[in-house]
Design brief:
alpha/beta; UDP-galactose 4-epimerase, domain 1; 2 domains; seven-stranded parallel sheet; 13 strands; 36% helix; 15% strand
Length: 338
């Protein structure tokens, strides 16, 4: 197949690109060029977020499938529609599992779970994207929607609010405290991007997947306490978590509100029956313990990879200090929930 990938060099998309290329497909990547494009792939260097530039560089393209990893607002989706209408047999939009109703009414989450997230603008934009694409889905623009959840690759160490770098891991290795939201007992699913890609490629060019929405996640669920225990083991260090209520974290650090209340505070447990039906034989093979060890090993291979984000480190110290000193809200205010 001839496949256009908008993005293609990021955390999830690089694994998708690699697996599609290994299957013998002809891959074109449209990106800014800020990251290296894999050998063997054709590259279109363009600003995806410039509507006119996007339309111009895609004016002569014709592909079997187009995959957009870089659409975050309805305006981005409208630009993709204008540029690719009538030029692809399948348009795959990368949405997010954050679109599902929060708080959850029931788990596990299925693709039929209603959409609605009052806490996070990012999720609200993804919902609006889905609604727009559903409204223009048709023979000249056949749409498939894919909703990753918390997916990480070799170069990522996942964290609820502290990015994906080595900062929290450095604190753990150096015996410093770090934050786990609430009591750390809520269940969560973390998926290796290489496993995600195995399910995803089963949807590319799959006519039965057109007009459908899918999430693709591991079936393994762990508490946040267990997640950090596994990270500590991979780092060869004991962990010193400080459990802080989500509401308190969001009070001190408002940007965390969406990431916690609109996502990681909720139990992230998914029913993957649908993707397994449409991509027979798919299953996630990497346990979290194996995948996180790969990530830690990658960081440990080169000291230059273990950069500390000092602003992030100071933020962690500030939140922990505020909690311990009851600087913002008395701990008793959270006694019913914590």
């Amino acid at each position: 197949m001839r496949i256009l990938i908008i993005g293609g060099t990021g955390n999830i998309s690089s694994e998708v690109t690699s697996q599609l290329y290994s299957m013998g497909h002809e891959i074109t990547i449209l990106s800014s060029g800020s990251r290296p494009v894999p050998a063997g792939c054709r590259h279109i260097k363009a600003n995806k977020f410039n509507d006119g530039e996007l339309q111009n560089c895609l004016k002569d393209i014709s592909v079997d499938a187009a995959i957009d990893f870089m659409a975050f607002t309805p305006a981005h989706c409208r630009a993709g529609y204008r540029a690719l209408r009538g030029k692809t047999e399948q348009f795959i939009f990368i949405s997010s599992a954050t679109v599902y109703q929060k708080p959850h009414a029931k788990i596990p989450v299925t693709e039929d779970t209603p959409r609605g997230n009052p806490f996070w603008p990012y999720a609200q934009d993804k919902i609006a994207c889905e609604e727009y694409l559903e409204s223009i889905h048709g023979d000249d623009f056949p749409v498939t929607i894919v909703r990753p959840s918390h997916t990480f690759g070799q170069t990522w160490i996942p964290s609820p609010i502290n990015g994906c770098g080595f900062t929290v891991s450095s604190r753990i290795k150096n015996g410093k405290p770090f934050i786990i939201h609430d009591k750390g007992e809520s269940l969560w699913t973390l998926t290796a991007s290489s496993d995600f890609a195995k399910g995803f490629v089963g949807l590319v060019g799959n006519k039965n997947a057109i007009g459908e929405a899918f999430h693709i996640t591991s079936d393994e669920t762990l508490s946040w306490n267990a997640i950090y225990e596994e990270l500590g083991k991979a780092l060869g260090a004991s962990i010193k978590p400080v459990h802080i209520p989500s509401e308190f974290i969001a009070k001190v650090y408002p940007d965390a509100r969406g990431m916690l209340m609109g996502d990681k505070r909720e139990p992230g447990v998914f029913d993957n029956s649908k993707i397994k039906k449409f991509a027979p034989g798919f299953k996630c093979e990497k346990s979290f313990s194996a995948a996180i060890k790969e990530s830690v090993d990658w960081f440990m291979e080169d000291p230059r990879r273990r950069q500390i984000d000092m602003a992030e480190d100071r933020l962690i110290e500030a939140i922990i200090g505020a909690w311990e000193n009851s600087k913002y809200i008395p701990a008793s205010a959270y006694s019913e929930q914590f």
